[in-house]
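Hmm, how's this folded?
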Amino acid sequence: MRITKFKGIFVSLVAVLILPAGLPAQQSDQAPAAKPNPHIEAHVGDVTGHPDAGSDLYYRYCWGCHGARGNGDGENAPYLNPTPRNFVAGIFKCRSTPTGTLPTDDDLYHSIERGFYTTTMPSWITLTAQNRADLVAFIKTFSARWATDKAGEPIQIPPEPKLTVESIKRGKEVFQKMECWKCHGQEGRGDGPSAATLTDSFDQPIRPYDFAQGTRFKCGTTNQDLYKIFMTGLDGTPMPSFASVIKPEEAWDLVHYLRTLQVSHASPELALWKTTPEGAAFLAAEKVRNTPTGSGLAP
């Protein structure tokens, strides 16, 4: 039994490695692979992506997880958590556009380039800019939304205010007022009282972001990226858009406060918070909690 199992894994790996571009394997139990729509293109800066070229790339690198039809049912999908993105649904978490709208070509391009933290989706920065634009164009052929809807208009991000202790404290108040702690927990560990009950739009369990362990976010690394998450929401997840309920300056205060919860990330916000009695006490408690066992000596 063990020999048979490893033989199957070996054959699967060989199929992925030597499979000719554009020809997905083992489709006997699946619908035919998607055919590129020549009328759909992607425009990223000066680069124009073409779906026919993107098709070859998709079936070389992507279909094993996202499926031959783009609906997230690739042969690797049952072993992945979270599950791969279902492109047919046309629902995307990371966007610069308002909640409920399609992302821009730039949004999809940067998602492919960046990859997704806490998932098995890697960065594809090793591909050329043309390759990534071609993939964006082909991904858009999976969902009928791209034929009927336009991408949303990117939100305006105002300049970030000066970082102050007062801004951090106001952000803490916003965290309480908006009840962010119900999912993320009072200390931002993703262990709030609602955390265990959360599911995404496909009824898959989903865990809130753990700020204490994180150094980057699913949708980026900068304060601007974090601001966008508040104001656009993560479609398909319980994380809503706060654009209609908090002001831009409150969102920036929240950004500053949440950075102080990232105790494993040396940010300017955390450094400033450490200088206050409240911040120093919080960090001291975190240090005790996270003290590693053992001698601390390198082997």
Notes: The two ends are 38 Å apart (CA to CA). Confidence is low (pLDDT under 50) at residues 1-32.
